[in-house]
Write a structure and sequence with these properties.
Blueprint (H helix, E strand, L loop, with lengths): L1 H8 L2 H16 L4 H12 L1 H34 L2 H12 L1 H10 L4 H9 L5 H11 L1 H20 L8 H13 L2 H11 L2
Length: 189
Amino acid sequence: EGVGQFLVVTGVWGSILFVLIYGVGICLFIPAIVLTSLGAAIFGAYWGFLFTWTGAVLGASGAFFISRVLARDFVSSRIGDRLRQYDDAIGHNGFTTVLYLRLLCSPFTPTCFGMGVTKVRFRDYLLGTALGIVIGTFAVTFLIGNLKVLWASGDWRSLFSLKVAGAVSILFLSLFIPMILKRWKSRNR
């Protein structure tokens, strides 16, 4: 609560500080769900979404560059022909690959570092990440932000409100996005 109070009291600087903390946290392997939940609890559903999404994109970029600079050459010199074919395919289909992994809700930070050692271009990685995490980030921040309001008001009957039901529905439906994409992809072949 002390950190939350500090960030709320400091206004815009608090939100900038939170975004930076989120970004560094990703690079230090702090689970994204913890940071996202913290942002939603501090800033609420809507501002929490904006600040956590921004921090996640910043952290994902940092982790990608750390991995690219420190490990790409080593990994590419060690992979065999079979893995090189996958690396080439990932590089060729970077945006789609990253978007699909993000929609699959693959572990956030390991995916960030993992993509850094592949041939995927940063632009494709950034766009795939930024778009791919929107639904999940919104669902989590919206749910937690609304639960925060319920907790503060003490009106637990509102737990069954349309807002909470909507947030849970979005979160639940986001789990089916990979299956929908897979079916769509197989129909368009």
